[in-house]
Amino acid sequence: MTVLPVVLPIVIGLLAAALALSAWRLLKGPSAPDRVLALDTLYINALALLVALGVWLDTSLYFEVALLIGLLGFVGTVVVATFLLRGRIVP
Amino acid sequence: MNTSIALWAELIIAALALFGAAFTLIGSWGLAKLGDFGKRLHGPTKATTLGVGCVLIASMLWFGLTGTPSLHELLITVFMFVTAPVSAHLMIKAAMKLDRELRPPPPPR
Q1: B46-99: pLDDT as tens digits
Q2: Full domain range(s) for residue B50
Q3: Do A45 and B87 touch (CB under 8 A)?
Q4: CB-CB: which of A21, A32, A63 is closest to B29?
Q5: Closest CA to A7 of B48, B15, B25
Q6: Residue A70 is nearest to which of B27, B80, B93, comparing CB atoms?
Q7: B46 to chain A nearest CA, in Å?
Q8: Is B32 within the bounds of a domain?
Q9: How far is CA B33 from the centre of its chain?
Q10: Residue pair B18/B32 in contact by the 8 Å Cβ criterion
């Protein structure tokens, strides 16, 4: 156990930087599809951050959280993109 | 983190996690930097899928080697690989509907 305690904070820092960049695009994005794409990237980055945090803390508690984030984020992206495409959600 | 595993396994896990995090950062950087929605869609949808896949494989190796193997990561990986193209397709369709300049030109007569 010599390498991982050094590497995992770097990994978590890189993922947090990715999260900050996509949040910046979410706040700035000129059009609505830009914001949807930024939100999609944001939840994927949050999922990766949670998995890395689970390795860092050596607990398998976060897998259900990551799975839930992935599922609900996908549903949210589909719903918002369908709304932008058709003007209503139910076809 | 007080469990100990072999050094080579630790090195593989560290390399996979670093590679995945770097790819995720590159994807989000492309999202923040590029200038057009069509260009911006490329970064996150490709690089982020690979990055998250690598982080999940690293996590799977770690929990498999420390004695508590689980199939959750595999489930998340399969789910991500299935859903990422679908959401990207829907987003580019919505963008093409809203922005006339993203649509391809009509064919010549």
Answers
A1: 888 889 999 999 999 988 888 788 788 888 888 888 998 999 999 988 888 888
A2: 7-101
A3: no
A4: A21
A5: B15
A6: B80
A7: 11
A8: yes
A9: 18
A10: no
For residue B68, being part of any structural domain is answered with: yes
pLDDT per position as a tens digit, B14-23: 999 999 999 9
The three-state secondary structure class of A19 is: helix
Using CB atoms and an 8 Å cut-off, which of residues 2-21 of chain A contact chain B?
2-5, 7-8, 10-12, 14-15, 17-19, 21
Whole-model pTM? 0.88
**Residue B41, both tokens:** 């869609």
What is the value of ipTM here, to two decimals?
0.88
CB-CB neighbors (< 8 A) of B44 in chain A: 22, 37, 40-41, 44
Looking at the 3D structure of chain B, how many domains does it have?
A: 1
Q: Which of A7, A63, A74 sits opposite B17 (nearest CB)?
A: A7
- Are the CB atoms for A52 and B59 separated by under 8 Å? yes
